[in-house]
Design a protein that fits this description.
This protein has 16 helices and six strands. The protein is α+β, with helices and mostly antiparallel strands and about 290 residues long. It has a four-stranded antiparallel sheet with strand order 1-2-3-4. Strands 5-6 form a two-stranded antiparallel sheet. Strand 1 and strand 2 form a beta hairpin. The protein binds a DNA duplex (13 and 12 nucleotides) through helix 6, helix 9, helix 12 and helix 13.
Length: about 290
DNA sequence: GTCCAGGAGTGAT
DNA sequence: ATCACTCATGGA
């Protein structure tokens, strides 16, 4: 299918999802909900192979192709810093990911790094998810709350550290319907954030990640150590400033699509200056 | 051995 | 409200 202005590299490797693997020929293999996918990009032509029947409909939803990305980027393009990030991460879309997996993954992200988060998510999936295969690649679905609760002993062996209890308590809240993610997704952003923060192990940052990366609430601005550094450096002359102040500043400064500003800044400052990824690799992965 | 990683809970002030 | 401390794990 033809999709304009979508970069698989920036979209799948900017850190919003932990479930995609770049293959040797720079296509991507991943499991999303119940299905396995392989996506190949040649410029603006995307070849999607999947166990899912309607891949075009899936892609429209998952990559949020209904949004007007150019208009969003125009609105957040406030100065030369963000302008540079927008230009360098061309084609980065914020995904609409499944809510439970997103919540669980970001609970595991606390005081953790991306390779280790990926390892933990993969560990859980291998042990408690269902196997899916496509074109010789295989992976596992992310375990449901009930699958996790039926196998707490196995969860305890997944090396989740202090986050293990948080994950199990969150799964209990979901199963007991004390938290209903579908309902929460329909609330206003502020109410949504408040509800998510009732979950043990979910503070403001993780609530914002779920709101942004699952519910498409672009007014959310998650503040992690990297975005904190970036904002402090670019807009506060490295002066002392709290995470709350950073968040309020960014929401006011970038406006209703500040979540996109957050992701472009994060991606630009992390992914475009990576160790181990040469610019050549980047270009290959971009499908140039 | 030390420091850091897409933080959050707890308790003291 | 804001601080300091702690939490388990793996990599540099």
């Amino acid at each position: 299918m033809e999709i304009n202005n979508l970069s698989l590299y920036y979209t799948l490797e900017c850190g919003q999802t932990f479930r995609w693997r770049r293959t040797s020929d720079c296509s991507y293999f991943g499991i999303v909900e119940e299905n396995a996918f392989i996506i190949r990009q040649h410029g603006n032509i995307f070849e999607i192979t999947s166990t899912e029947s309607d891949v075009e409909e899936w892609a429209r939803r998952y990559f949020a192709l209904d949004i007007d990305l150019n208009n969003i980027l125009l609105e957040i393009d406030r100065d030369e810093h963000i302008h540079k990030a927008i230009k360098s991460c061309r084609g980065l879309h914020i995904l609409r990911q499944e809510a439970w997996e997103t919540l669980a993954s970001y609970i595991l992200s606390a005081n953790n790094n991306i390779p280790n988060i990926k390892r933990m998510v993969e560990n859980l999936s291998q042990r408690l998810g269902e196997r899916r295969e496509i074109e010789g690649y295989s992976g596992f679905t992310f375990p449901s709350p009930s699958a996790i609760l039926k196998n707490k002993d196995i969860v305890n062996k997944c090396r989740l550290g202090f986050r293990c209890d948080y994950l199990i308590k969150a799964a209990e809240m979901i199963r007991e319907e004390r938290i209903e993610l579908v309902k929460i997704s329909r609330l206003s952003y502020e109410e949504c954030r408040e509800e998510l923060m009732k979950i043990m192990g979910v503070g403001g940052k993780i609530a914002d990640c779920v709101a942004l990366f699952s519910f498409g609430m672009y007014e959310a601005f998650p503040v992690d150590v990297w975005i904190r550094r970036i904002i402090r450096n670019l807009y506060f002359s490295n002066n002392k400033v709290s995470n709350r102040e950073i968040r309020h500043f960014a929401m006011r400064y970038f406006g209703r699509y500040c979540g996109y500003a957050q992701e472009y800044l994060y991606c630009h400052y992390r992914l475009n200056k990576p160790e181990g990824i040469t610019s050549q690799t980047v270009e290959q992965a971009q499908g140039i």
